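Example 3.2
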Amino acid sequence: MLDYTNPKLIVERSQVVPGRVQWRSPSNLAIIKYWGKHGRQLPKNPSISFTLDAAHTDTILSYEAKESGMGNVDVSLYFNNIPNEAFQQKVQLFLESIIDIFPFLKQLRLKINTSNSFPHSAGIASSASGMSALALCLCSLEQALFEDTLSDEDFFQKASYIARLGSGSACRSIYPGMAIWGENTVFEASSDLYAVPFEDTHALFKDFHDDILIVHKGEKSVSSRAGHALMDGNIYADNRYAQARQRFRSLLSVLRSGDLEVFGQIAENEALTLHALMMTSHPSYILMHPNSLKLIEMVRAYRAETKNPLYFSLDAGPNLHLLYPDNVRADVQEFIKAELLRHCYNGEYISDMVGPGPSKLGLTAIEG
């Protein structure tokens, strides 16, 4: 059993040079959805996702030694340079929950400044990008304080493990291209404890597009955390987990062969299944908006007319993800601008695609 707890990670106050570390980490779009968990952020079924590029979170973690004692975690959080009490409470609870892994956090005064390139809490997996960026900052901070350099593979595995504890889907954002999370019988390296990269994809999926149509920019009526909890009482839950495992097995074969039609069928069915589970939870809830359904109808009509492989997906929100290969990019983007944007919030969308994964933007001492 993997165990990252380390009570020896205690710093000498006099040796702590104030500094900051900064990471940019992307959101991700699950094709096979993770919905339902157990234990400490463990999935009820395996999932696989595209790591995005343009939809990302930038996080700066600044630190300095406290004047005295261990005490509680001392953290202040700023979202878009503005103090955010709700985020701060969530992050404080998360940091306190991983003190057994990073005991030195009690010895530091922390300041976190974070910002998204996309609307927060509207169903673009903001917790995935945010928590993965924070996990990467924490792992880099440990290396800076203790000069204990891990291999790249071990560093990112640990970051994925830490990210999972903050938000399950965040563990997949650690890797470029595609990532798998959840132990299964068809991908030997898989684990419930962290995500692993999936590199054995057809060339079509290496530069796949995911354009995100912004239907609504407001807060979701039900958080993903609450939605996961409602799966415990959903009468369809067990069948859903079996279905996800079967679809996961089928999708891996499709990703290797490049069968876009079957890929699209699985992606769309998974998106609609996710929202069906919300509608059949108790209490039930609906996160799609009328224009979400309108756009789905228009995408299906376009595909039937043009035969272009344009498919849709949804996360836990109303915004539509349009999935397509690069060889139809010009036609699809003309369709988006000419027909679809009129049904989006202020005509907004994010032109995105499969990305290279997180990037470290800096690790510096603070002068003065």
